[in-house]
């Protein structure tokens, strides 16, 4: 059988499959469906320093080959996560990634300090969420702003720091380079694409905030292109995500240069989709006589 073991940021994953932030909660509900130790890792629901109730109104809207969300980072806050959710996540026998957002540099710094003294394996810095009115989006658009926030957090962060990029950045390659220069140990991309939906009967925007974040298979070609662009310019590992639904999608991202990948919207469609994907990657590698993923990583 092929060896799916993957090393990124000094962390060894049993395979490159991670469930993406905001699509898997903290894993508890999914643990009743399948053995989560099968996964390479779980990325937590997006966390902020203080608890957030999230956005009002419609939060999810299906669109052809995709899903638009306006959750607004509803979460219990960093302290409650550390006390209540993290111990359960660690019991699942897989790597734990804490996704951290914030409205100000100070919130990011304090949150990173708190998470750094826990046993999370990696901190994923979310500088790209398009659903929060203040912060978030601004940090992930301009390269100089991204450099400032990453370098500030890196000074206090004692865990490997993976920075999640917005596809709405002015220049995705420049953004990745700025984050790498700021001290990022890895880059993950893409987050959702800024989108909207209109209710023609009510004659109004579906979402209270008008714009929201598009994910799902429809964004995959864009995500794949951006992962390829970024992997060609940075030296740190790249985590690819955006519309991954099959093992073929995963192989494409790895061939484009990704070291690890995250599955998001697919978890809503088939809660144990990651299990199928891992099995199918093994089958593909055996059929193609590929011993390790390093043989095909970044070959495009």
Major sheet size, sense and barrel closure = 8 strands, parallel, barrel
Number of distinct beta strands: 16
| Computed Rg | 18 Å
Mean pLDDT: 95
User: Span from first to last CA?
Assistant: 25 Å
Shape: globular
Q: What is the count of helical runs?
A: 9
Q: Any idea what the CATH superfamily is called?
A: Aldolase class I
What is the CATH T-level topology? Answer: TIM Barrel
Helix content: 25-40%
Q: Which strand order spans the largest sheet, edge to edge or round the barrel? A: 3-4-7-8-9-10-15-16
> Which structural class matches the secondary elements?
alpha/beta
Count of discrete structural domains: 1
CATH-defined architecture: Alpha-Beta Barrel
Low-confidence stretches: 130-136
Name the beta content range: 15-25%
Q: How would you describe what is shown here?
A:
- With 300 residues, this protein is α/β, with parallel strands linked by helices.
- The chain is built from 9 helices and 16 strands.
- The strands form 4 sheets. It has an 8-stranded parallel beta barrel with strand order 3-4-7-8-9-10-15-16, surrounded by 6 helices. It has a 4-stranded antiparallel sheet with strand order 5-6-14-11, with no helix packed on it. Strands 1-2 form a two-stranded antiparallel sheet.
- The longest helix is centred in the C-terminal third of the chain and has 15 residues, at 273-287.
- It is globular, with a radius of gyration of 18 Å.
- The two termini are 25 Å apart.
